Amino acid sequence: MQLNVAIVGPAHGLKGEVKLDVRTDNPQRRLAVGAVLATEPASAGPLTVERTRVYKGVTYAKFVEVNSREAAEAIRAAKLVIESEEDEGEENAWFPHQLKGLEALDPEGYELGIVIDVESHPAQDLLIVREPDGVITRVPFVSQIVTEVDLDDHCVIIDAPPGLFSEEELVVVENEGENQE
């Protein structure tokens, strides 16, 4: 399986250093000096890590194959990927490719939709769910809402607060006996 290690950001300086948007839990291992990383698109690589550094929480990298600002800009937005067969998963941690295609169910087992993607954000990830009517819903991937991920049964259980999914799912009760003046 291919794992996304980082996304190449803008050039930093004149000698080919780039800013990285790191997507791995283990950057010291994945971005170690000498590591060779495949790229998407493939035409941008492969790239060999010459050095990395972290400054004020931002990771910068220099690759052997990239020696100028122009070359660094040419690989901007490339994904750095690796092939991995190892099971790196910790409990309650999943890769986006494991979640895509899972059926989204409410706690009673009713279908809410299909997980079509996962968006990473600083505060939390979001599950992108396509509802049966085609509406796209972004579900905060937190344990209070996504209560269970069952890869064996190919589903996620979502205990959604009212209003998160389409209004067609909501039952609106009107008070008929109220005075309306």
First-to-last CA distance: 65 Å
Helix share, percent:
under 10%
> How large a portion of the residues is in β-strands, by DSSP E?
35-45%
- The H/E string reads EEHEEEHEHEEEEEE
Shape: elongated
Overall structural class, as computed from helix and strand content, comes to mainly beta
Q: Work out the number of β strands.
A: 12
Mean pLDDT value:
82
User: Rounded to an integer, what's the Rg over CA atoms?
Assistant: 22 Å
Largest sheet: 6 strands, antiparallel, barrel
Total helical elements: 3
| Strand order in space, largest sheet | 1-2-5-4-3-6
Could you provide a short overview of the structure?
This protein is mainly β and 181 residues long. The chain has helices spanning 27-30, 69-74, 96-99, and strands at 2-11, 18-22, 36-40, 47-55, 58-63, 79-83, 103-105, 111-119, 126-130, 136-140, 146-150, 155-158.
